[in-house]
Amino acid sequence: MTTQVIGRKMYLAGKWVKRDRIIEVRDPQDNSLIDTVPAASVEDMIQCIEEAKEGARVAASMPVYKRMEIIHKAADYIEANDEKFARTIAREGSKTIREARKEVKRCIQTLRISAEEARRINGETIPFDQMEGSENRVGYYYRFPIGIVGAITPFNDPLNLVAHKVGPAIAAGNAIIVKPSTLTPLSALLLAEAFDEAGLPPKILSVVTGYGSEIGDVLVTHPDIRMISFTGGVEAGEEIIRKAGLKKISMELGSNSPVIVLEDADLDEAVESTVSGAFWAAGQNCIGVQRVYVQESIMDAFQKKFVERTNQYCVGDKQSELTDMGPLITEKEAIRVEHLVNEAVEAGAILLTGGKRSGAFYWPTVLTNVPEECRIAKEEVFGPIVLLYPVKDLDTAIEKSNAVNYGLQAGIFTNNLQKAYKAIEKMDVGGIMINDSSDYRIDAMPFGGVKKSGLGREGIKFAIQEMTEPKVVCFKLCN
């Protein structure tokens, strides 16, 4: 595909600006140049934060109906230009055009939910007379915006994950500065375009394109940034926590998601759901299926069906309506995944299908007999790899599911309500899907994990709670 490179501007405090230094945005499918974006400097980020201080004051004073109106208008703009947004996602990232269209729909919903939740930022009355001597006091608390939110977003959902930070921040009356991935900045800039067209006052939103190694520390450490909302890898998350100082932190750091399939499950449904959950967006999905624990009595049947369904996946051109899976985000990432698979096979794992790489493409891969000490069994692969394990019973499956340092989401397939509730109680995760894979989420639900999967919760209502603080008001009444 031929694209005219026009040189995109970044959105700095409500103004579209260019810079002499640029970052090339390339299609991982063929490494073709899509466009360029400015490489922001430290001075740009400092200026942005200074401007955002005024933006935070404007946002906090904006009436709720106006916030709602602007967010809805931004959603309307995306809806009117949905194919433009989808094509951008599919060009700069790993998603196929069908996957990209679904992300656009989710982004629209994320913004509409954000607008609606703006009217539900509620407080409540406090019965101060519950304490002796306070009989003549009455009061309440309400929630107020924290100020400036710094958001750092990854490449795998370059539009909707940004919306999950921008929508709640604006709904809550904050200013927000987004530092998107250098691999997929165009979708974030399109979101800024939507808010600009919707009439968002200047200085409330910035999308600053630049290298994290150059401008990230300024955003993370600056004392006027009152919250960092980060989605990405564990190592980067831990580094941010060490540097951030006294501010709120919200982190979604990925997982190594398990799914349990018991002998009473609907086998076809379990196979279809787990295959889709494993290979969506080329497996670059924080809640994607990585480990499947199957009861021994149905292991052979499940494995056969799983491999057959995996082999039906069409890998190829992201823009084709027929393609099920595109490339990984870079060839470097595909090579990393290839090394993990080869390492496991050398340690005794059995390759059932896949294990093939071409450039940034890595074919859907299924392994069994993977030693538990292998990195691929313990770490987040973030690629189209799934491991199948036979287990004796539910207790064993739960024990093995919990035996990693992650706990974002899990799934279990069973028609036994008692067993489902046992898994609900015993699995160390932030969310568990019954008769569905781990790869299920709606944008209104609380989303986050335990252990190294992160801190806090996203999902609009819950993100707004994180992005506001309660203020107590107490009246002492005259006798």
From TrEMBL:
Annotated ranges, domain Aldehyde dehydrogenase: 16-473
Gene3D superfamilies, A to Z: Aldehyde Dehydrogenase, Chain A, domain 1, Aldehyde Dehydrogenase, Chain A, domain 2
Stored Pfam families: Aldedh
Keywords: Oxidoreductase
Source domain of life: Bacteria
InterPro entries: Ald_DH/histidinol_DH, Ald_DH_C, Ald_DH_N, Aldehyde_DH_dom, ALDH-related_metabolic_enz
Listed SUPFAM superfamilies: ALDH-like
Keyword Zinc in annotation: no
Family: Belongs to the aldehyde dehydrogenase family.
Name of the protein described by the UniProt record: Aldehyde dehydrogenase family protein
Biological source species: Geobacillus thermodenitrificans
